[in-house]
From TrEMBL:
Its cofactor is pyridoxal 5'-phosphate. GO terms for cellular component: cytosol. Belongs to the class-III pyridoxal-phosphate-dependent aminotransferase family. InterPro entries: Aminotrans_3, Aminotrans_3_PPA_site, Class-III_PLP-dep_AT, PyrdxlP-dep_Trfase, PyrdxlP-dep_Trfase_major, PyrdxlP-dep_Trfase_small. This is (S)-3-amino-2-methylpropionate transaminase. Its EC number is 2.6.1.19, 2.6.1.22. It is an enzyme of class 2 (transferase).
Length: 447
């Protein structure tokens, strides 16, 4: 594929430039050291798939606010909706009274949820808060305490969601953690060194053994799973494994909760990734791309389950803020009008077409070991040795991303071994922008 004629990257200083370095110095002095940052640049503005830093450099964004900007930076329709709402009502709190945007958004989400019975929705501020609400609804509905989660899972950074999250790096010094959380093996076929079918059988045998040696199934309120693991390395759940989880939950009187914080709202080619698995969840948690960057999450579920929480038992001061609600409504309209679900599939195909040939390219260091994902949620796993599947060192992946950044592409890592490159491009990215960004990223892998 030839390089695009029009270049969108525009570099006028080194990366990071002097103004970025100055602002980072201010951040280091004023902001807690524990707040991580993936890059050393400071952004002034963004439009579509492009961002401009405080030094005037324009870069292509392959991160999308960690999957938050499926409709791109500052889409005019969303900006206009926020501006119009800000002139009428900025805040009230759904705990105080009722305002139309909150109700309208819940109605819209209830109708869109891939659940074949009446649904209800609770709005909150973040994915972690949405997951916590899902756990509360599940426990209230079943009267049971236990939650089953999976190796590699990431569900947030509050104390409860850290308890649910797998990777120990995020959990240092923050324990003790919440009780009644039980972790099962996840069918990560590539890292297990076997076929997907074999991985399913091995992990399912462990899941059944867990019910004897780990947790009494009669105490299990819910199974919580990401249809595509995000932080864990962009690993889709095998369809057969998801089907068996649904059967277990139905048979056992437990609920199936899907965490679609990162995979939802068009990222995978359907509004919710679970639509591609042939099963119905009981509760869906959505956030990130739901509102084009405004802080919003939705916990959507079967009405008979969601109404089990006692009056006044759920809610929050800012949950479902009017500005966030109108942003979400405009985002849904934009996804539908611009056919971004179809666009996500095309983007995924284009990314695969560039990276899959690298699976046999021995000139790279580290090597491309696996290319996987759903739709435009694609992960590239880097390894030192393809036969042994030895994970590339975190420093090696950081070096690649650093070179890409210096050349004008913003990208991030993922994976339990932080040896994966996560690609979360805005779905409004043009073909020229995508080609240019991929050219830079692959060039950075070649040094």
């Amino acid at each position: 594929m030839t390089a695009p004629a029009v270049r969108h990257i525009r570099l006028v200083t080194e990366i990071p430039g002097p103004r970025s370095r100055a602002l980072l110095a201010r951040r280091d002095a004023a902001v807690v050291a524990g707040l991580g940052r993936a890059t050393p640049i400071a952004i002034a503005s963004g439009q579509g798939a492009l961002v401009t830093d405080v030094d005037g450099n324009t870069l292509i964004d392959f991160v999308s606010g960690i999957g938050t900007l499926a409709v791109g930076h500052c889409p005019p329709e969303v900006v206009q909706a926020i501006q119009a709402q800000a002139e009428q009502l900025i805040h009230l709190s759904a705990l105080v009274g009722t305002y139309e945007p909150y109700v309208a958004l819940c109605e819209r989400l209830n109708a869109l949820a891939p659940i074949s019975e009446p649904c209800k929705t609770l709005l909150s501020n973040s994915g972690a808060e949405g997951v916590e609400n899902a756990i509360k609804f599940a426990r209230a509905a079943t009267g049971r305490p236990a939650i089953i989660v999976f190796d590699g899972a990431y569900h947030g950074r509050t104390l409860l969601t850290l308890s649910l999250t797998s990777r120990t790096y995020f959990k240092k010094k923050f324990g003790p953690f919440a009780p009644e959380i039980y972790r099962a093996p996840f069918p990560y076929a590539y890292r297990m060194g076997m076929s997907e079918a074999e991985a399913v059988e091995q992990c399912w045998a462990a899941f059944e053994r867990m019910q004897i040696a780990g947790v009494d199934p009669e105490t299990v309120a819910a199974v919580l799973i990401e249809p595509v693991q995000g932080e864990g390395g962009f690993i889709p759940v095998p369809v057969e494994f998801m089907r068996r989880l649904r059967e277990f939950c139905t048979r056992n009187g437990s609920l199936l909760i899907v965490d679609e914080v990162q995979s939802g709202f068009g990222r995978t080619g359907t509004l919710f990734a679970i639509e591609q698995f042939g099963v119905e969840p009981d509760i869906i948690v959505a956030a990130k791309s739901i509102a084009a960057g405004m802080p919003l999450a939705a916990t959507i579920g079967r009405a008979r389950i969601m109404d089990c929480a006692h009056y006044g038992g759920v809610g929050g001061t800012y949950g479902g803020n009017p500005l966030a609600c109108v942003a979400a409504l405009a985002t849904i309209d934009l996804i539908e009008r611009e056919r971004l679900l179809e666009r996500a599939k095309v983007i995924g195909q284009q990314i695969r077409a560039r990276f899959e040939p690298l699976l046999t390219d021995d000139s790279l260091d580290p090597l491309v070991g696996d290319v996987r994902g759903l739709g435009a949620m694609i992960g590239i796993e880097l390894v030192k040795d393809r036969r042994k599947r030895t994970p590339a060192a975190a420093e090696e992946v950081l070096a690649i991303l650093g070179r890409a950044l210096e050349r004008g592409v913003l990208a991030m890592r993922a994976g339990l071994y932080v040896n994966c490159i996560r690609l979360l491009v805005p779905l409004v990215i043009t073909d020229d922008q995508l080609d240019e960004g991929l050219e830079v990223l692959i060039g950075a892998m070649r040094h």
